[in-house]
Amino acid sequence: MTRYMNTLINKLPHTLLTNIFYLWRIFGTAISFALFGVFGMAIGLVLSFLQLVGILNQKKLQHTARATISYSFQIYILFMQSIGLLKIEVIGQEQLSQPGAKLFIANHPTLLDVVFLISLIKDTNCIVKGKLFHNPFTRPPISACNFIHSDTPEMINNAVQALQSDENLIIFPEGTRSTPGTSLTFMRGAANIALSANINLTPITIKCSQPFLLKNTHWYSIPSSPPTVSIEIHKPLDISDINKLNIMPSKKARILTTKMTDFFTEKLFDQNDIN
Amino acid sequence: MQSKDAIYNYLSEILQELFEVEASDISLEANLYEDMDIDSIDAVDMIVKLKEFTGKKMQPSDFKQVRTVQDVVEAVYKLLHEEESANI
């Protein structure tokens, strides 16, 4: 049976197979979006219900929510890989278990970046855009996980407090998905948080072999072949040399943000792309 | 008894040296947050610098309504001359 199938497949024109696979991946992408919406909402609602009837208190809710979502995301990524939508490779995973690794910064090329990182980093907090709180699909899980809102004046204090309570924290310093074709623009919140909490930043670079789920693109604009997403966790960026300078906090934040931007720019862009 | 011009000039210096703002972007109407990428941490440092300039106590609450360069100049001028009019 398999031999027959192989012979049949070898006889079909290559372009027909490619097209069939392409259509399959569009179908798979649609299913994946739907699954995310449905399960995200369902998990959020179940957790809220458990809190409502008193089975989970606020702290337990947060812990359970984060664990549930981390495991759900691992399964979700395995699912997408198994139906051929993408391939993930993780480099430097051992950095995650280092004692000083608590504050993670990453660039933000695709819609799935949060999913990738939360599946890798257990029991983590995250700074999220306020807009996601108003989206009915992302709101229940985000509230259950007690993530930090980016657009409030208390953001930095909340983040520092979380880190001091020994929570992990993920920040996307761009604040939103990267605009394709432009250089990196990092906001200074992550730097201010690191300096204030006096914790080194662990950079995570996310690279896609092909454009994938970018800002300003349609959900059905998938690449011609399944992209490989390379997630690399690097050694921490030391902040102590900047923190001990005798200058104003705002200046330290600018220097550190430049250091972060330079690091990511060097790692993300090939020599022959920019210059 | 600093004049508004003196306040403006000092503020302009702070903006350029501390916050890396281009001189050409500085004007009375310029919005600190939207035009010059000043955030809340910067605002605290700006007030510290203004305290050095005026020698007067200043609170972040004094600058709560401040949005533009002109707002800052007016706020500082008001604080500087408040004490004098109280003494009269």
Radius of gyration of chain B: 13 Å
Spell the H/E element sequence of chain B: HHHH
The biggest beta sheet of chain A, please? Answer: 7 strands, mixed
What is the CA-based Rg of chain A, rounded? 21 Å
Q: Which stretches of chain B are low in confidence, meaning pLDDT under 50 for 5 or more residues running?
A: none
The percent range for helix content of chain B is 55-70%
Structural class of chain B, please?
Answer: mainly alpha
Reading the helices and strands of chain A in chain order gives HHHEEHEHHEHEHEEHH
Summarize the largest interface: chains and residue counts: A-B, 11 and 11 residues
- What spatial form of chain B do the alpha-carbon principal axes imply? globular
Could you characterize the architecture of this molecule?
The complex is a heterodimer of chains A (275) and B (88). Chain A is 50% helix and 12% strand. Chain A has 10 helices and 7 strands. Chain A has helices at 2-11, 14-52, 58-82, 113-120, 130-134, 139-145, 155-164, 189-197, 240-243, 249-268, and strands spanning 87-91, 103-106, 124-128, 148-149, 168-171, 201-208, 228-233. A 7-stranded mixed sheet of chain A has the order 1-7-6-2-5-3-4, sandwiched between helices. In chain A, helix 7 crosses helix 8. The longest helix of chain A has 39 residues, at 14-52. The model of chain A is unreliable at 271-275 (pLDDT under 50). In chain B, 59% of the residues lie in helices and 0% in strands. With 88 residues, chain B is mainly alpha-helical. Chains A and B meet through helix 10 of A and helix 3 of B.
